[in-house]
Amino acid sequence: MEELIQFIAESIVDDPSEVSVNRIEENNSITVELSVADEDMGKVIGKRGRIAKAIRTVVNAAAAKEGTNVKVDIK
Question: What is the domain extent for residue 20?
């Protein structure tokens, strides 16, 4: 899951070296924190959050295939 988020984020931003993905496992769910450079934050979130929503949709579809719950936090 982390590799998928990392790939998507690196494809969007101008500075791929600043992309970091951290996985936090809690009880029955997984939280993935995505961090990017400040100047790339707008590109990851998108207008009205459309890009962020699309990332979450793709990740949720992949997680459903594996039978897990994944929450994506953009920091």
Answer: 2-74
